[in-house]
Every structure is written in structure tokens, then in C-alpha cells.
Design brief:
The chain is an alpha+beta fold. The chain is built from 27 helices and 31 strands. Aminopeptidase N is involved in the degradation of intracellular peptides generated by protein breakdown during normal growth as well as in response to nutrient starvation.
Length: about 900
Amino acid sequence: MSDTSTPVVIHRADYAPPAFLIDSVALEFDLVPTRTIVRNTMRMRRNPGAVRAPRLELLGEQLELVSVAVNGAPHAAARAHEHGLTLDDVPDAFELTIESACAPAENTTLSGLYVSSGNFFTQCEAEGFRRITYFLDRPDVMTTYTVTLRADKTAYPVLLSNGNLIEEGDLPDGRHFAKWEDPFKKPSYLFALVAGQLVALEERIKSASGKEKLLQVWVEPHDLGKTRHAMESLIHSIRWDEERFGLELDLDRFMIVAVSDFNMGAMENKGLNVFNTKYVLANPETATDTDFANIEAVVGHEYFHNWTGNRVTCRDWFQLSLKEGLTVFRDQEFSADMAGGASNEAARAVKRIEDVRVLRQMQFAEDSGPMAHPVRPESYVEINNFYTMTVYEKGAEVVRMYQTLFGRDGFRRGMDLYFKRHDGQAVTCDDFRVALADANGRDLAQFEGWYSQAGTPRVSVWTNYDATALRYTVTLKQGYGDVAPAARETQTGPLLIPFAIGLIGRDGADMPLRLDGESAAAGTTRVLEFTGTEQTFTFVDVREEPLPSLLRNFSAPVVVEYDYTAGELAFLLAHDSDPFNRWEAGQRLATRELLALAARAAQDAPLSLDDSVVAAFARVLNDETLSPAFRELALMLPSEAYLAEQMAESNPAAVHRARQFVRKRLAAALRDDWLAIHERHQTPGAYAPTPEAAGHRGLKNLALAYLAELDDPAEAVKLASAQYAEANNMTDRAAALSALLAASTAQETPAAESALADFYRRFEKEPLVIDKWFALQATQRGTAARPVIEVVRNLMTHPAFNLKNPNRARSLIFSFCSANPAQFHAEDGSGYAFWAEQVIALDALNPQVAARLARALELWRRYTPVLREKMRAALEQVAAQAKSRDVREIVEKALV
């Protein structure tokens, strides 16, 4: 399909097996940046399980065809066209050799084979392989690959591909070669090659079965000192997968390569993972606690794909969550285990809270917008647009529900059966569901709805206590409320919702739970299997009227509707034994107050905050029985984006005013407490990115951020300036700089500008740190005299800014458009005009990145009339000028 033609909609219902299969492929690359020659030899045959096709259709984009041969003879009945290569008159089984050329140096899309910093890299998921050679570029065509790379030895001394290195040597013309063989069948999207000036950190380990494995982390030479954490994360990932799921590394070597120009976080190519440098490089001076944690999680995620995605892959792209949702769940469990093991529920809860915050802020919003789709979509125009929060994060929640229903052991049984049945195959989400059901002797037909229904379910809860009979009834009703059309169209019936509940007595202790019909109480948290549209559960022997603790540990991705009073929420915040629900109570309490204040702010009415809310926050702040990491999360107010989503008509300015009012009120009322916390949670000595140390830094820096909100921020400026100057790690230095920027909006001070200039001088040769420098400025609050849009436009002319680099574009443009709602949604529409300019500019360079930015306005109908009209005009401007199907699909759906 041409990017300028009428979009072709691909439907899941139209899936058909490939007409041809590939038994083996041998690729030869003569790597030259301006014109790389690719020789592709495939042993092919007709698929006996498919309808006989009159011709062979191979996919190809932006390729120059050089020659075609069938069984060694030139094939005249071959025709290259915009979408690929058509071959008539092919036999039932044959060897096909195609020679073609591509131009990696000109490939700004970063899809296929491209050049970055003088080195060669590939990105083939989802449809990049067709930019390398003509092929059956679809995930259900799996074959073995032998790859020979040839290149100038001085310019490209390192030549890497998937699998095992079987031969290498010099060539007579100053070039050299390397030959790689991958013994495992894989689809084309898992192919990779890397060539260039790289060095590696190496480790040799023994697998659980005693086999030696070579691990390598490849980077540019000046970055070698920042690879130790990535290597340790890889080793931890390998050990965790062995212990938790009995899965071993199946290749003799496993390689990670870091590249600065990359559209996503990382890619799980078989045995040769290509990573964005952001998720590999770290040392205390350049990376924050969050960076260290993210590297561990992403390294784990890509390694875990070796089994959940590579050994068992997707039949088609509609099944994307089969690998991504499952692997996100696995990396979440890995991170939780790294933080707290299997038994430290408080430490694990911190990770759970962080994951749910992201889900509710971003995926729930996606569910209510024009891009709403099921975890397993039914159609798409551009598959790159469906690497979404729904497929990944909601998909992970769907997988988590299996574990909630069956427990860890039952989930492991299901995983074992899944691999036993499907290793080496391309399968579907239904195959996974059936394996989990069969392994646990359950019928999970109703659970299929989680894959096919769009939207966020809402569960309404009513309770009743019969003091005479000592019975407590809980009635649940599920539905979707006022949802997007895409959600309404996919609903087929009630879902199976695992709904975890506890009952808390007046003394704050959990009650033992016995459901009607059971002979004895069992535990203090029960998972109710909620399968009807409306269903009542009765607890017996309830000695006093309890307070319900609902959806413990966020046992299902739903919105719970229950009319807690402010006092009840404060009680839960103080006493709930479920750490997640304790946090949730505080968030509900804060959200309720903030939305009421936002409504008043929209009317220019005076604002006030009840002392009981301040008291509730003070209790958490000073409760030393709670971990610092938990307190940090509990004391963070809901984000402006999340709050705006809860309004019938989103008003970013009113939300910002309300949230800032509460922050200032908490800063002033708890000033002495914040000062004490900042002092008490210092972390002297050498930096360590442990969860415990990170928790202390996080709480200390939250205190500093609150102090920066004071009307007289002199004390905060003094503390932040000292912390900036004395910091021995990036976490504290970046937090201090952020506090200085915040304080400068209340009172002009040279400290912020001085620190910004110093920060740039210190780190101008560290691209990932300069990304932070751009992002901090893009997300600052700004003032009426100096709106942030002016800062951002000025920074786009900075010598360090490069629109072609996705990380740099994200650090400045995305940060402003997606993480600074009060400034982006300025009433004059300047933010929207800027957004339109950048989407159009990026569309000409890199449609995948442009499409992600385009989504910043997809919920435009939810905003106030003044903003709505300006957003619509910006969307129409992009719709009229965008060329790629990536961007057009987003804006056209938004405008329908």
C-alpha cells in the first residue's frame, strides 16, 4: 500500500495460512552505507495446508531489484513493484535466489537496515524485514537462517547476527566476513544484524543444566564503562527464568547491542537483542534510580521474550499481546521479585503501584478514546500503531488474572503445558488461554472476552450488613458506563472478573472470611469469581459491620465504583493491610478533593482544603512503619493528566490550579515535617541503586519538591543548591535541578539558570543526560511572562537538538506535549500549533515516531469548547498534510 493511497484495512477474520513455506534461508550482505547488496537464497515449497496460489507474492519496500533466479536459472516471470515482487510460473518446490540493493545511510525511518553513528543496525519488527530483502514477511513463516556479513574491516571490525558464529576471516580487498547460523526457526521480524566500531563487556556463566554460555553487551568504545548494570540485569534475568519457570537460555551466546537511534526501547531478536542506549548505559553520575530500575526491567523483558515470543511466536500481528502482554507480566514479576522476593508484599506492592499508575493514567485513557481496541484487535491500517498500552499493559493485566485465579503453581502448570504444546510454533491468544485452562482443569471460555472486548469495565459495589444474622452481603454489577464507540461495538457479555476483597473491623484488623456455604473461615483476602452481570456474595459470622477493602492488589483492570466517605478512606489509608489498597485509599481521597477544587477553580471560586486531608497525609509522611518507597508513592498527588481524565469536560488550567493549590497547602502545613524528612533520608556514602537506597532518595527528593512550592522558597533554593553541588549521583542532582526550576516560578532566582548552564557543561558529551536536560525544561511550570512553549521553541534551535534522533525528539517535544498539560493546553492554542508543526516534520522523517506524537490530541472531544475547537483545527491541519499511513490512521480516527 502506498502511503498516499486509500488506506487498506487489515482484518483478523481474513487470516489465511501462507501459500508458500520457506524451509531455509541463506543471506549474504555486502555492507556499504550508500548501497548495500543483499543476496537472499531460499528453499521454498507450496504450503499443503493452504489454498493453492497462482503465483508467489513476496513483500518488499524501498528496494532495488538486481536479479532473480529459480533453481539457479534467471527467472523472466518476475515483476518488482511498489509493494514487493511477483513471480509467476514457480514449481511446487524450488530454490529462489534474489539479489537486491538498499540504501541504509538514507533510511531515517529506522526500520529495516539503517546507519547510526557510522554503524549498521536493523529493526525488523513489525514489518522492517521487507526493507532489507523481498520475503514472506509475516510472523507465521518460520525458518532457519544462515547469514554471511562482509564489510570493510577497518570501518566495521565487528560483524554480528543471530545465533552462533560458525566462521570468520579476512578477504583480499581489506574487507572481512563473519558467518552466523541460528539453529532455531524464527520469523523474519526476529532477524538482526549489527556491524561497526563496537566493544563488548563479556561474562561466561553456566546454565542450570551446567552448559557454558557467553554473554556480551556491545556498545561504542566510550560507553564500555556504563555496561555493568545491564550485564548484571541480564544474569539476574537468566537465573530468574530458570528458577521461576524452568526456562534455560538455549543458545551458546546471548548478545545485547546498544544504539542511540532507535524507535522503541529494545528488540528481542533471537540471541542478538538491539537496545536503545537509554536501557543499557548507566553509572551513578549519568543515570537515575529510575534509569537503573528501567534497565533491569527492559533487559529482563527482552530476555524473557526468548521463550515468550521467540520460541513460541505470534501467528499474526493481531495476536501481538500473546508475546507482549505475557512478557510484560513476566518482567513485572521479575522486578517485583528483585525488589522483595516472593514474600515481601510491601516491597512488591511498590512495583505493583507503579505499574497500575501507568495503566490507569495511560491505558484507561486509551480505552475511552478513538484508538480504543481490544487486547486482541480486530483490524488495523498500520500495525506499528498497535504497539499500544492496551496490547502491552492491559495485556499484562489479563495474564496476571490467570495467576490470580490459579495461584503461582497453577500458572506455572499452564506455562509448562503451553511450551510443551507449542514450542517452535506460531500460535494465538486462544492457544495460550486453552493451555492455562487445561493445565488447571477449568473451562475458561468466558475469559475470552478479555481479549475481544474493548473498554475499561466498571464494577459497581453495594454492601449490606445484617447485625442480627451476622451476614454481610456484597453485590457486584459490571458494565462499561459511557464508553467509546469501539468499546460498545465489541461487548458480547459479562466478563469473568477475579475480584479480591477483604473486610476490616473497627480495630483496623482484617476479619477472617467465610462465604455462605463454607464450613470454616479461610484467610483474610478472598478472590471472588465474578461472572454475571450482577452477582451477590454473602459472608457469614461477621461479628461487626466491616469496612470493605475492594479489588485488593488491583486484581483486575477495572474501575471500582463504591461510595466511600472521606473518613472511611482516611481509615483505609491508616489501617488497610493490603499495601496497594492503602495507597489506593489515599489516591481516592486526594482525587476527590482535587476534582472538587478543580470545579471551583473553573468558576474562579476561592479554594480551600479541609484540615482532615492534611492530617491524613501527615500520618503517612511520619509513619516510620511504612517504607520510604511506599510513602513517596502515597504522598504523590494524582497527575494532572489523570485528573483531567476524570472530569466530564477536561479543563487542564483548572486542574493545574487545583493541584498546585494542594501542593502549596501541603508544603506550608507540613513544612517542618518535609524539612525533617529531607534531612533524615540522606544516603551518605557510595551510591547504590538498591530498592532500599532508592526509596530513601525518592522520599527525600519528594520532600524537596514540596518545599520548592512554598511562597517563600528561599530555604528550598538553599537546600537544592547545596544538593546539586554536592550530589554524587544523577538522581539527587536532577531532583535538585527540578526543585530549583519549580522554585523559580514563585520567585525569580539566578540559581535555576546557573544550575541549568552548569548541568549542560558537565554533561554535554553524554547524550542520555542531555535528554534529561531538555526534558526538565520542557516540563517546568513556566510563568505568564515566560511560557514554556517559548523555552521549547528556543531549545529546538540549540546545537544539541536533533529531530532525527527519537530520544532527543521525545525528550523535548513529547515531554512538552504529553507531560506538561497546563502549558501545552494554553488557551491561545500555541501548544497545538507547535504539535501540528512537529507531527508534520517528523512524518517526513520517521512515521512511527510521528504517529506516537500524533496521539497527544486523540482525546480532543473531552476538553472545554475553547480548547476543543483549536485542537480540531490542528488535527485537520495534520490530516491534510500528513503522508504516512501511520499518522493518517491516528488523526483520521480522531476526527471521525
